[in-house]
Amino acid sequence: MTGLPAPPPMRAEASLARRGRSAALAGILLALASCGAESRYQGRTLAEWQSDVEHGSPELRTRAVEVLGRAGLRAVPVLVQALRDPETDVRRRAIQALGRFGPMAQEAVPRLAAASRDPDPDVRVAAAEALGQIGGADEAVPALIAALEDPHPDVRSSSALALGRIGPAAKAAVPALIASLSDAHLAVRSAAALTLGRIGPEAAAAVPALTRALHDPRPLVRSVADEALRHIDAL
């Protein structure tokens, strides 16, 4: 009785299979690297959108900052550049886009602080809101404190609310917020009271002014002042 034939050697086939898998993996990695280098946003590269920001018509520049606001942190330097645009709407939309990045857009804070003094009040409002979204006690808070004296009430109220978003780190604003409790505009007074409550115990110096605000002629201010005192633990 003869024995069964020996199975054919498999080493060569296994080696070829491993080489095939390695080549496929290398191809995938190369493709991913290529995609990363040529990332596209709505069919165009970052450099192409940047060119629109630098050289396009007002309509193209506005469109570009809107797209770049959804393109990730790589777009932050281009959006910061757009803050110098001569068109009000381009500056405003670039500011709003930067604000949506939140604390990750810290590099934009110095330019946003400058934008809080923009000639256009809508741009100043947007800058205040963005500073509150991004935060930063060293540069954002001083700019927002200065904006509490802006001639436009919408800027003052937006600045007060932005300081509230920053919270206890905005404690340096307490004296200015106390002064804002006497503002002629309801929105400013209520925003100042709300923010003092959000600052919390660090706003203890505001207790006498908030107590007086309990007698404000407008119910909203009275209600917010009462809540703020509770957050400061004064009641």
Structure description:
There is one protein chain. This protein has 235 residues and is mostly helical. It has 13 helices and 2 strands, in the order H-E-E-H-H-H-H-H-H-H-H-H-H-H-H. It has helices at 11-37, 46-55, 58-68, 76-82, 88-100, 109-115, 121-134, 140-147, 153-166, 174-180, 186-199, 207-213, 219-231, and strands at residues 40-41, 44-45. The chain has a two-stranded antiparallel ribbon with strand order 1-2. A hairpin with a 2-residue loop joins strand 1 (40-41) and strand 2. Helix 2 runs antiparallel to helix 3, helix 3 (58-68) packs parallel to helix 5 and helix 6 (109-115) packs antiparallel against helix 7 (121-134). The model is unreliable at 6-10, 12-17 and 22-37 (pLDDT under 50).
In terms of topology, how is this protein built?
Blueprint (H helix, E strand, L loop, with lengths): L10 H27 L2 E2 L2 E2 H10 L2 H11 L7 H7 L5 H13 L8 H7 L5 H14 L5 H8 L5 H14 L7 H7 L5 H14 L7 H7 L5 H13 L4
Antiparallel strand pairs: 1-2
Helix pairs in contact: 2-3, 3-5, 4-5, 5-7, 6-7, 7-8, 7-9, 8-9, 9-11, 10-11, 11-13, 12-13
Radius of gyration in whole Å, from Cα? 28 Å
| N-to-C SSE string, H for helix and E for strand | HEEHHHHHHHHHHHH
Give the strand line-up of the largest sheet.
1-2
Identify low-pLDDT runs: 6-10, 12-17, 22-37
Number of strands: 2
Biggest pleated-sheet summary: 2 strands, antiparallel
* Number of continuous helical runs: 13
Helix- and strand-based class? Answer: mainly alpha
* Relative helix content: 55-70%
